[in-house]
């Protein structure tokens, strides 16, 4: 991916003061996009991208949490690359109310990329996390999600 360009008039109308550029920057950090390395890499190679997630801090208003997504080329077979990723939080956070806002953002997954056609064939993302006492001693939050995108080859 070189650049994301989105021109959603509905999104711009819902976010006064935003521009196509600011919307595109937001889209680049969405978990459904996969950043590929700029140069060719071998099996086992890793690369990463870093971005910020906006959260609401009960004590300080909104703030940003730095996050890194680390990718690894696992294998290449029949002109298809299998890439895994893991998302990690870089900013230290101890407030469980903020951790609760991040629980679904720290995913792991696998991408299957067709090297000949230059297209993403499939992308599977998983979240499996439990947070104890996010809103008091007698609370528990659990997030378990699997999301799969598969390229439709058409008729």
Q: How does this structure look, described?
A:
This protein has 155 residues and is mainly β. It is built from 3 helices and 6 strands. The chain has a 6-stranded antiparallel sheet with strand order 1-2-3-4-5-6.
What is the fold's blueprint, element by element?
Elements: H1 9-14, H2 20-28, E1 46-57, E2 61-77, E3 80-89, H3 96-102, E4 108-114, E5 119-132, E6 140-150
Antiparallel strand pairs: 1-2, 2-3, 3-4, 4-5, 5-6
Characterize this entry briefly:
The chain contains three helices and six strands. By secondary structure, it is mainly beta. The chain has a six-stranded antiparallel β-sheet with strand order 1-2-3-4-5-6.
User: Strand-residue fraction?
Assistant: over 45%
Major sheet: arrangement of strands = 1-2-3-4-5-6
Give, in order, the helices and strands. Answer: HHEEEHEEE
Tell me the span between the first and last alpha carbons. 27 Å
Structural class: mainly beta
Segments where pLDDT lies below 50 for 5+ residues? Answer: none
- What is the number of helical segments per DSSP (H or I, 4+ residues)? 3
The oligomeric status of these chains comes to single chain
Helix content: 10-25%
Give short descriptive properties of this protein.
single chain; 155 residues; mainly beta; 3 helices
